[in-house]
């Protein structure tokens, strides 16, 4: 403000007075004016630079605040997710423990079923035994050293039982050899009525008999007089004769 007044005063002085001024005084005024102009220019530049820098700082601060808010939101969600993950983990661990306990029980039952099935297999007729041979070979000799898992062993047992049930609920005719009391082997056809009874007869109808299961396998007994009826029953089964009632002896245990 002092420099501004000085300029006005200088402008009002008569020219003769200016020339009368001391040269040093004029130089001082000029120097002061120059410095004042330079100071105003510097101030203007500093103000412009500060406004630009302030705007940049404000933008940076806004960006940091946004990132901080996003981070806080993620941390909050992470805390919630961590809680849910913990709950799910505990639930899965409990289910795993229950499953492990169930698998132990399955292994125990499978071992028991395999043992009982081996005993039952001794009563299987040869057609069924031959069909089940691949599955029976999968039964472990030592359950503690079994190659298959309990689930795979159970699946094998189910496969065997399905075939056993299928055979037991149907009729089957097989060509087999039967030994006469004299020791001679004769080609016969055998009609199996499930797992409970069977009848055999040769092609002439003269050699016939009945078979029943036992703890050591099937027992066959020659039964004269039923050959024609067995031949007729087999013919009906093979659709070479029309359906009809055929009476055959039956052993009921």
Write the layout of secondary structure elements.
Layout: H1 2-12, H2 15-20, H3 23-121, H4 126-136, H5 150-168, E1 171-179, E2 185-193, E3 197-201, E4 208-214, E5 217-222, H6 227-237
Antiparallel strand pairs: 1-2, 2-3, 3-4, 4-5
Helix pairs in contact: 3-5, 4-5
Task: Provide structural commentary.
- This protein has 253 residues and is of the alpha+beta class.
- It has a domain at 170-253.
- The protein contains six helices and five strands.
- It has helices spanning 2-12, 15-20, 23-121, 126-136, 150-168, 227-237, and strands at 171-179, 185-193, 197-201, 208-214, 217-222.
- Strands 1-2-3-4-5 form a five-stranded antiparallel sheet, covered by helices on one side.
- The chain starts with a helix and ends in a 16-residue tail after the last helix.
- Mean pLDDT is 80; it is low at 1-20.
